[in-house]
Design goal:
The chain is about 40% helix and about 25% strand. The protein contains six helices and eleven strands. The longest helix has about 30 residues.
């Protein structure tokens, strides 16, 4: 094992002498491995490691961050946003209120440090509910407008509000949509909202209702079966 000291950074690395004619540097489980030809001197290897210092430090930091994320996972149950699965990572900071960041591969929830000894389940669910509400406000208006143009009619109004036993419903020429609908793919969301639009014209699942749905939904039967299986 060797050390490369450079002002503020210290790189510890292991040299593996090989019969190859080229030198390779890799990061394996947080360790820097240098595979060098048998005839390379310690000085030559140090010089090459120095040249690659920024690359090595960058990848070491990425490994550390990935490990920290892995260790902080507390939600075994996956969370879905627009049909995509995310892990939930919970961190603590000196914040006044919980915050949430929707990142590329996971959802980061930052809780006030004072919550560290509390049951986090309800706090996390409340924070996720706020996230779904925020996404719904961004996504649903354009979907409603698209379907209005498609069908040529629209509800008197639509509201985003929690619903006890469904994702959306039509009542008195208004459509109500639960924020939790944002768990599902755009295809599923559009199907459910189109379904409610059709109820503006047909209260029951009559022949006319089904014909209208089938007219505007490609592969209607397949999507209908998927929606029927949803748990909400």
């Amino acid at each position: 094992m060797s050390l490369l000291k450079n002002k503020n950074d210290v790189i510890t690395y292991t040299v593996d002498k090989t019969a190859n004619s080229s030198l390779y540097i890799s990061i394996q489980n947080g360790e820097v491995i240098v595979k060098a030809p048998w005839y390379y001197t310690t000085k030559q290897i140090q010089e090459i490691v120095e040249e690659k210092k920024n690359w090595i430090l960058k990848h070491l930091q990425e490994y550390i961050e990935a490990e920290n994320i892995r260790k902080q996972k507390i939600n075994a149950k996956p969370v879905y946003v627009l049909g995509k699965q995310y892990d939930v990572i919970v961190k603590y900071a000196n914040h006044k209120n919980p915050t949430l960041n929707l990142l590329k591969k996971y959802i980061e929830i930052v809780l006030p440090a004072k919550y560290i000894d509390l049951d986090k389940t309800k706090i996390i669910q409340a924070t996720l509910s706020k996230m779904y509400s925020s996404i719904a406000k961004e996504e649903l208006e354009s979907i409603m407008e698209d379907i209005r143009h498609l069908l040529g009619f629209a509800p008197e109004d639509f509201k985003i509000k929690p619903l006890e036993d469904c994702l959306a419903k039509c009542s008195n020429q208004n459509i109500f949509i639960a924020p939790s609908i944002m768990q599902y793919s755009n295809e599923i969301i559009r199907f459910i909202i189109l379904h409610q639009f059709c109820h503006l014209k047909y209260k029951n699942h009559t022949k006319g209702f089904n014909e209208l749905m089938e007219k505007y939904v490609f592969d209607y039967e397949t999507i209908a079966k998927q929606v029927k299986k949803l748990k909400f």
